[in-house]
From TrEMBL:
HNH domain boundaries: 6-49
Protein name: HNH endonuclease
Organism domain of life: Bacteria
Keyword Nuclease on entry: yes
InterPro entries, sorted: HNH
Species of the source: Phaeodactylibacter luteus
MF annotations from Gene Ontology: endonuclease activity; nucleic acid binding; zinc ion binding
Keywords: Endonuclease, Hydrolase, Nuclease
Region described as Disordered: spans on this chain: 1-33
Amino acid sequence: MDNQRCPLCGRELGSPAQTSRHHLIPKSEGGGPEDMVELHNICHQKIHSLFSERELKDYYHSIARLHEHEDIQKFVRWVRRKHPDFYQYNRRKKR
């Protein structure tokens, strides 16, 4: 993983323990291995704290579309200054 970058926040991917694979189209909605990207755990968790699996399938199924959302933009501006291994839990938004 040397010098690989998180497609959501742009930071280098830190230790493998702090990364995970995200299905751009959730498996439960028909996504497969071709729909996977490697993200920081905090970035992955942020996506799932904001969007339902249906929303991910229907609209937010690409990094570009995720970047359109105001809460993702705010999160990226905030997390961009953190160390690649930084992690904290994200609160789930009330729907």
